[in-house]
Here is the input.
Amino acid sequence: MTDKRDLLILGGGLVGMTMALAAARKGIGSHVVDRADPAELTADGFDGRASAISTASWNLFANIGLAERLEPHGCPIDTIAVTDQMKPGSIEFSPEPHEGTLGRMFANRELRLALFEAAREESLITWHAKAEIVERVRGQHGVSARLADGRELTASLMIAAEGRGSPTREEAGITIAKWDYSHRAMIAGLAHEKPHDNVAWEIFYPAGPFALLPMLDGADGSHRSALVWTVGEKDAAGTLKLSDRAFLAEVEKRMGGIFGAIHSVGPRSSYPLGFHHTARITGERLALIGDAAHGIHPIAGQGLNLGLRDVGALVEVLAEGMRLGLDPGDAQLMKRYEDWRGLDSFTVALATDGLTRLFGVPGKAASALRRFGMAGVERIPALKTFFMDEARGVTGDAPELLRA
Here is the structure.
Protein backbone atom coordinates (compact mmCIF):
# COMPACT_ATOMS: atom_id res chain seq x y z
CA MET A 1 0.00 0.00 0.00
CA THR A 2 1.41 3.41 -0.98
CA ASP A 3 0.27 6.93 -0.09
CA LYS A 4 2.09 9.74 -1.92
CA ARG A 5 2.55 13.24 -0.52
CA ASP A 6 4.72 16.21 -1.52
CA LEU A 7 7.09 15.82 1.43
CA LEU A 8 8.40 12.90 3.46
CA ILE A 9 9.59 14.41 6.74
CA LEU A 10 11.69 12.03 8.80
CA GLY A 11 11.61 13.24 12.38
CA GLY A 12 8.55 14.69 14.11
CA GLY A 13 10.18 16.77 16.82
CA LEU A 14 9.88 20.53 17.24
CA VAL A 15 11.57 21.35 13.92
CA GLY A 16 10.10 18.50 11.89
CA MET A 17 6.51 19.10 13.00
CA THR A 18 6.85 22.86 12.50
CA MET A 19 8.04 22.10 8.97
CA ALA A 20 4.95 19.98 8.31
CA LEU A 21 2.57 22.63 9.65
CA ALA A 22 4.25 25.53 7.87
CA ALA A 23 4.18 23.57 4.61
CA ALA A 24 0.52 22.68 5.12
CA ARG A 25 -0.36 26.36 5.50
CA LYS A 26 1.01 26.76 1.96
CA GLY A 27 -1.01 23.82 0.66
CA ILE A 28 1.90 21.36 0.71
CA GLY A 29 1.13 17.88 2.02
CA SER A 30 3.50 15.67 3.98
CA HIS A 31 4.12 12.40 5.72
CA VAL A 32 5.75 12.85 9.13
CA VAL A 33 7.51 9.78 10.55
CA ASP A 34 8.84 9.62 14.09
CA ARG A 35 9.95 6.82 16.42
CA ALA A 36 8.81 8.58 19.59
CA ASP A 37 5.58 8.12 21.49
CA PRO A 38 3.74 11.49 21.62
CA ALA A 39 2.26 10.61 25.01
CA GLU A 40 5.74 10.37 26.54
CA LEU A 41 6.89 13.63 24.95
CA THR A 42 3.90 15.54 26.33
CA ALA A 43 3.72 13.98 29.80
CA ASP A 44 2.62 16.42 32.49
CA GLY A 45 5.16 18.15 34.73
CA PHE A 46 7.97 20.69 34.39
CA ASP A 47 11.39 19.11 34.17
CA GLY A 48 13.41 22.14 33.07
CA ARG A 49 13.53 21.23 29.38
CA ALA A 50 12.67 24.51 27.75
CA SER A 51 13.48 26.55 24.66
CA ALA A 52 14.10 30.22 24.01
CA ILE A 53 11.93 31.32 21.10
CA SER A 54 13.31 34.40 19.36
CA THR A 55 11.16 37.21 17.99
CA ALA A 56 11.53 35.83 14.46
CA SER A 57 10.62 32.30 15.54
CA TRP A 58 7.57 33.64 17.37
CA ASN A 59 6.55 35.34 14.12
CA LEU A 60 6.73 31.92 12.45
CA PHE A 61 4.51 30.33 15.09
CA ALA A 62 2.06 33.24 14.78
CA ASN A 63 2.02 33.01 10.98
CA ILE A 64 1.12 29.31 11.05
CA GLY A 65 -1.68 29.86 13.54
CA LEU A 66 -0.16 28.75 16.86
CA ALA A 67 0.06 32.09 18.66
CA GLU A 68 -3.30 31.87 20.43
CA ARG A 69 -2.54 28.36 21.71
CA LEU A 70 1.00 29.21 22.83
CA GLU A 71 0.65 32.77 24.14
CA PRO A 72 -0.54 31.87 27.68
CA HIS A 73 2.41 29.51 28.18
CA GLY A 74 5.30 31.75 27.17
CA CYS A 75 7.39 33.79 29.60
CA PRO A 76 8.72 37.01 28.02
CA ILE A 77 12.46 37.62 28.05
CA ASP A 78 12.72 41.36 28.72
CA THR A 79 16.43 41.43 29.50
CA ILE A 80 19.48 39.25 28.92
CA ALA A 81 22.17 39.76 31.55
CA VAL A 82 25.67 38.52 30.72
CA THR A 83 28.37 38.37 33.38
CA ASP A 84 31.78 36.83 33.87
CA GLN A 85 31.63 34.98 37.21
CA MET A 86 29.31 37.65 38.70
CA LYS A 87 32.18 40.16 38.69
CA PRO A 88 31.94 43.86 37.73
CA GLY A 89 31.82 44.61 34.00
CA SER A 90 28.60 42.81 33.10
CA ILE A 91 26.29 43.75 30.26
CA GLU A 92 22.51 43.92 30.00
CA PHE A 93 20.54 43.75 26.79
CA SER A 94 17.10 45.38 27.11
CA PRO A 95 15.19 46.59 24.05
CA GLU A 96 13.11 49.75 24.12
CA PRO A 97 9.44 49.25 25.10
CA HIS A 98 8.23 49.75 21.52
CA GLU A 99 10.63 47.05 20.28
CA GLY A 100 8.95 44.27 22.25
CA THR A 101 10.76 41.48 24.05
CA LEU A 102 13.97 39.64 23.24
CA GLY A 103 11.97 36.45 22.93
CA ARG A 104 9.89 34.03 24.98
CA MET A 105 10.68 30.98 27.06
CA PHE A 106 8.50 27.90 26.65
CA ALA A 107 8.56 24.53 28.31
CA ASN A 108 9.24 22.07 25.48
CA ARG A 109 6.13 20.17 26.51
CA GLU A 110 3.92 23.16 25.67
CA LEU A 111 5.56 23.60 22.28
CA ARG A 112 5.03 19.92 21.49
CA LEU A 113 1.41 19.98 22.65
CA ALA A 114 0.62 22.95 20.42
CA LEU A 115 2.35 21.41 17.41
CA PHE A 116 0.88 17.94 17.89
CA GLU A 117 -2.66 19.22 18.41
CA ALA A 118 -2.44 21.34 15.27
CA ALA A 119 -0.96 18.46 13.26
CA ARG A 120 -3.79 16.12 14.25
CA GLU A 121 -6.31 18.63 12.88
CA GLU A 122 -4.44 19.22 9.59
CA SER A 123 -5.64 17.05 6.70
CA LEU A 124 -2.47 17.72 4.70
CA ILE A 125 -0.35 16.00 7.36
CA THR A 126 -0.26 12.23 7.73
CA TRP A 127 1.48 11.54 11.04
CA HIS A 128 3.14 8.18 11.63
CA ALA A 129 4.12 8.05 15.32
CA LYS A 130 6.00 5.19 17.00
CA ALA A 131 7.12 4.12 13.52
CA GLU A 132 10.41 2.44 12.62
CA ILE A 133 11.94 3.08 9.19
CA VAL A 134 13.65 0.04 7.68
CA GLU A 135 14.48 1.44 4.25
CA ARG A 136 14.93 4.86 2.65
CA VAL A 137 15.04 5.32 -1.12
CA ARG A 138 15.78 8.46 -3.14
CA GLY A 139 15.54 8.25 -6.90
CA GLN A 140 15.23 10.36 -10.00
CA HIS A 141 11.44 10.53 -9.82
CA GLY A 142 10.69 10.49 -6.10
CA VAL A 143 11.51 9.23 -2.60
CA SER A 144 10.10 6.59 -0.32
CA ALA A 145 10.40 5.08 3.13
CA ARG A 146 9.37 1.58 4.12
CA LEU A 147 8.19 1.12 7.69
CA ALA A 148 8.66 -1.93 9.89
CA ASP A 149 4.95 -2.76 9.57
CA GLY A 150 5.29 -3.02 5.80
CA ARG A 151 3.77 0.32 4.81
CA GLU A 152 5.54 2.27 2.07
CA LEU A 153 5.34 6.06 2.13
CA THR A 154 6.18 7.98 -1.03
CA ALA A 155 6.79 11.65 -1.78
CA SER A 156 8.65 14.03 -4.04
CA LEU A 157 11.14 15.34 -1.46
CA MET A 158 12.72 13.75 1.63
CA ILE A 159 13.43 16.07 4.57
CA ALA A 160 15.77 14.91 7.33
CA ALA A 161 14.72 16.38 10.69
CA GLU A 162 15.97 13.55 12.93
CA GLY A 163 18.43 15.56 14.99
CA ARG A 164 22.18 15.33 15.48
CA GLY A 165 22.50 11.63 14.75
CA SER A 166 20.41 11.74 11.56
CA PRO A 167 20.56 8.31 9.87
CA THR A 168 19.22 9.85 6.67
CA ARG A 169 22.18 12.24 6.55
CA GLU A 170 24.56 9.36 7.18
CA GLU A 171 23.01 7.21 4.45
CA ALA A 172 23.32 10.13 2.02
CA GLY A 173 27.07 10.25 2.71
CA ILE A 174 27.07 13.96 3.49
CA THR A 175 30.38 15.09 4.95
CA ILE A 176 30.19 16.60 8.41
CA ALA A 177 32.68 18.60 10.46
CA LYS A 178 32.31 17.97 14.17
CA TRP A 179 34.06 18.09 17.50
CA ASP A 180 33.27 17.34 21.10
CA TYR A 181 33.52 20.05 23.77
CA SER A 182 34.04 17.40 26.49
CA HIS A 183 31.24 19.06 28.44
CA ARG A 184 27.67 18.18 29.31
CA ALA A 185 24.67 20.43 29.80
CA MET A 186 22.85 19.73 33.06
CA ILE A 187 19.14 20.54 32.78
CA ALA A 188 16.74 21.10 35.67
CA GLY A 189 13.77 23.22 36.70
CA LEU A 190 14.22 25.45 39.74
CA ALA A 191 11.72 27.04 42.11
CA HIS A 192 13.18 30.05 43.91
CA GLU A 193 12.39 32.74 46.47
CA LYS A 194 12.62 35.95 44.42
CA PRO A 195 10.95 36.68 41.06
CA HIS A 196 13.23 36.62 38.03
CA ASP A 197 11.69 39.80 36.56
CA ASN A 198 11.81 38.21 33.09
CA VAL A 199 15.61 38.35 33.05
CA ALA A 200 17.64 35.59 31.40
CA TRP A 201 21.04 35.22 33.04
CA GLU A 202 24.15 33.92 31.29
CA ILE A 203 26.88 33.57 33.91
CA PHE A 204 30.23 32.45 32.56
CA TYR A 205 32.58 30.33 34.62
CA PRO A 206 35.85 28.75 33.44
CA ALA A 207 34.17 25.32 33.45
CA GLY A 208 31.39 26.60 31.20
CA PRO A 209 28.24 28.77 31.04
CA PHE A 210 25.64 28.72 33.79
CA ALA A 211 22.31 29.90 32.36
CA LEU A 212 19.12 30.75 34.26
CA LEU A 213 16.14 31.16 31.95
CA PRO A 214 12.87 32.74 33.11
CA MET A 215 9.74 30.58 33.14
CA LEU A 216 6.16 31.41 34.10
CA ASP A 217 5.32 31.10 37.79
CA GLY A 218 3.88 27.75 38.84
CA ALA A 219 0.19 27.22 39.57
CA ASP A 220 1.01 27.59 43.27
CA GLY A 221 2.64 30.99 42.68
CA SER A 222 6.21 29.67 42.93
CA HIS A 223 8.84 31.54 40.94
CA ARG A 224 10.46 29.25 38.38
CA SER A 225 13.48 29.22 36.10
CA ALA A 226 15.08 26.67 33.83
CA LEU A 227 18.70 25.86 34.57
CA VAL A 228 21.25 24.95 31.89
CA TRP A 229 24.56 24.32 33.67
CA THR A 230 27.61 23.30 31.68
CA VAL A 231 30.03 20.98 33.48
CA GLY A 232 33.08 19.05 32.38
CA GLU A 233 32.40 15.54 31.10
CA LYS A 234 34.49 14.05 33.92
CA ASP A 235 32.32 15.80 36.53
CA ALA A 236 28.92 15.18 34.94
CA ALA A 237 28.15 11.76 36.41
CA GLY A 238 29.00 12.90 39.93
CA THR A 239 26.95 16.08 39.59
CA LEU A 240 23.90 14.11 38.46
CA LYS A 241 24.24 11.79 41.45
CA LEU A 242 24.33 14.59 44.03
CA SER A 243 21.46 14.64 46.48
CA ASP A 244 18.92 17.41 45.91
CA ARG A 245 20.32 19.27 48.90
CA ALA A 246 23.90 19.09 47.65
CA PHE A 247 22.88 19.97 44.09
CA LEU A 248 20.96 23.03 45.31
CA ALA A 249 23.95 24.13 47.36
CA GLU A 250 26.17 24.01 44.27
CA VAL A 251 23.58 25.90 42.23
CA GLU A 252 23.09 28.60 44.87
CA LYS A 253 26.84 29.10 45.13
CA ARG A 254 27.02 29.95 41.42
CA MET A 255 23.93 32.19 41.40
CA GLY A 256 25.28 34.81 43.77
CA GLY A 257 21.92 35.17 45.51
CA ILE A 258 20.17 36.84 42.57
CA PHE A 259 17.00 34.76 43.08
CA GLY A 260 17.32 34.29 46.83
CA ALA A 261 16.94 30.81 48.25
CA ILE A 262 16.26 27.86 45.96
CA HIS A 263 13.22 26.01 47.25
CA SER A 264 13.26 22.94 45.02
CA VAL A 265 14.81 21.35 41.96
CA GLY A 266 12.99 19.23 39.40
CA PRO A 267 14.22 16.06 37.69
CA ARG A 268 17.77 16.39 36.40
CA SER A 269 18.97 15.33 32.96
CA SER A 270 22.04 15.94 30.85
CA TYR A 271 23.28 15.72 27.28
CA PRO A 272 26.76 15.93 25.74
CA LEU A 273 27.81 19.17 24.07
CA GLY A 274 29.40 19.19 20.65
CA PHE A 275 29.60 21.06 17.39
CA HIS A 276 28.74 19.77 13.97
CA HIS A 277 28.06 21.33 10.61
CA THR A 278 27.46 19.59 7.31
CA ALA A 279 29.40 20.44 4.17
CA ARG A 280 26.04 20.75 2.39
CA ILE A 281 22.42 20.66 3.45
CA THR A 282 20.91 19.14 0.32
CA GLY A 283 21.26 16.09 -1.88
CA GLU A 284 19.26 14.45 -4.63
CA ARG A 285 15.65 15.00 -3.52
CA LEU A 286 16.90 15.62 0.01
CA ALA A 287 16.98 18.62 2.35
CA LEU A 288 18.37 18.74 5.88
CA ILE A 289 16.83 20.98 8.55
CA GLY A 290 17.59 21.68 12.20
CA ASP A 291 20.15 19.61 14.07
CA ALA A 292 20.44 17.17 11.17
CA ALA A 293 22.27 20.01 9.38
CA HIS A 294 23.95 21.89 12.22
CA GLY A 295 24.44 21.37 15.93
CA ILE A 296 25.72 24.23 18.06
CA HIS A 297 26.53 24.97 21.69
CA PRO A 298 23.50 26.21 23.70
CA ILE A 299 25.54 29.21 24.87
CA ALA A 300 23.31 31.69 22.99
CA GLY A 301 20.09 29.70 22.96
CA GLN A 302 19.96 29.72 19.16
CA GLY A 303 19.82 26.00 18.32
CA LEU A 304 16.06 25.63 17.84
CA ASN A 305 15.79 29.11 16.32
CA LEU A 306 18.38 28.17 13.71
CA GLY A 307 16.30 25.14 12.79
CA LEU A 308 13.14 27.26 12.53
CA ARG A 309 14.94 29.59 10.12
CA ASP A 310 15.65 26.51 8.01
CA VAL A 311 11.93 25.73 8.07
CA GLY A 312 10.93 29.23 6.98
CA ALA A 313 13.43 29.30 4.14
CA LEU A 314 12.64 25.81 2.84
CA VAL A 315 8.87 26.36 2.91
CA GLU A 316 9.26 29.64 1.03
CA VAL A 317 11.48 28.03 -1.60
CA LEU A 318 9.12 25.09 -2.07
CA ALA A 319 5.94 27.21 -2.18
CA GLU A 320 7.37 29.59 -4.78
CA GLY A 321 8.74 26.74 -6.87
CA MET A 322 5.49 24.79 -6.81
CA ARG A 323 3.56 27.90 -7.86
CA LEU A 324 5.74 27.89 -10.96
CA GLY A 325 4.93 24.23 -11.57
CA LEU A 326 8.22 22.80 -10.30
CA ASP A 327 8.40 19.50 -8.45
CA PRO A 328 9.24 19.91 -4.71
CA GLY A 329 12.38 17.82 -5.20
CA ASP A 330 13.61 19.85 -8.18
CA ALA A 331 17.36 20.44 -8.12
CA GLN A 332 16.87 24.18 -8.71
CA LEU A 333 14.86 24.49 -5.51
CA MET A 334 17.41 22.49 -3.54
CA LYS A 335 20.18 24.81 -4.79
CA ARG A 336 18.24 27.88 -3.75
CA TYR A 337 17.69 26.47 -0.26
CA GLU A 338 21.36 25.52 -0.03
CA ASP A 339 22.50 28.99 -1.08
CA TRP A 340 20.08 30.73 1.28
CA ARG A 341 20.69 28.77 4.46
CA GLY A 342 24.21 27.41 4.08
CA LEU A 343 26.13 30.60 4.88
CA ASP A 344 23.80 31.94 7.58
CA SER A 345 23.76 28.72 9.59
CA PHE A 346 27.54 28.36 9.25
CA THR A 347 28.08 31.94 10.47
CA VAL A 348 25.89 31.44 13.54
CA ALA A 349 27.57 28.11 14.27
CA LEU A 350 31.04 29.64 14.14
CA ALA A 351 29.97 32.60 16.29
CA THR A 352 28.62 30.34 19.05
CA ASP A 353 31.74 28.19 18.89
CA GLY A 354 33.90 31.28 19.19
CA LEU A 355 31.96 32.52 22.21
CA THR A 356 32.27 29.12 23.86
CA ARG A 357 36.04 29.15 23.45
CA LEU A 358 36.45 32.82 24.40
CA PHE A 359 34.61 32.48 27.70
CA GLY A 360 36.27 29.17 28.43
CA VAL A 361 39.77 30.62 28.66
CA PRO A 362 40.78 30.40 32.35
CA GLY A 363 42.76 32.91 34.37
CA LYS A 364 42.35 36.37 35.86
CA ALA A 365 43.84 38.14 32.85
CA ALA A 366 41.40 36.50 30.44
CA SER A 367 38.49 37.32 32.75
CA ALA A 368 39.58 40.94 33.03
CA LEU A 369 39.85 41.21 29.24
CA ARG A 370 36.39 39.75 28.72
CA ARG A 371 34.86 42.11 31.25
CA PHE A 372 36.63 45.06 29.63
CA GLY A 373 35.14 44.05 26.29
CA MET A 374 31.62 43.69 27.74
CA ALA A 375 31.91 47.08 29.42
CA GLY A 376 32.84 48.53 26.01
CA VAL A 377 29.77 47.02 24.37
CA GLU A 378 27.64 48.37 27.24
CA ARG A 379 28.77 51.90 26.35
CA ILE A 380 28.09 51.64 22.59
CA PRO A 381 24.33 51.69 21.87
CA ALA A 382 24.69 50.72 18.21
CA LEU A 383 26.70 47.63 19.12
CA LYS A 384 24.19 46.61 21.78
CA THR A 385 21.36 47.00 19.28
CA PHE A 386 23.21 44.81 16.78
CA PHE A 387 23.63 42.00 19.31
CA MET A 388 19.98 42.30 20.41
CA ASP A 389 18.76 42.11 16.83
CA GLU A 390 20.89 39.03 16.28
CA ALA A 391 19.39 37.40 19.37
CA ARG A 392 15.89 38.28 18.18
CA GLY A 393 16.62 36.83 14.73
CA VAL A 394 15.57 39.95 12.87
CA THR A 395 18.77 40.54 10.92
CA GLY A 396 19.73 39.31 7.46
CA ASP A 397 17.51 37.87 4.77
CA ALA A 398 14.75 36.46 6.95
CA PRO A 399 12.14 34.19 5.31
CA GLU A 400 8.66 35.67 4.93
CA LEU A 401 7.19 33.38 7.60
CA LEU A 402 9.64 34.74 10.17
CA ARG A 403 8.61 38.36 9.62
CA ALA A 404 5.92 40.13 11.64
About this structure: The radius of gyration is 21 Å.
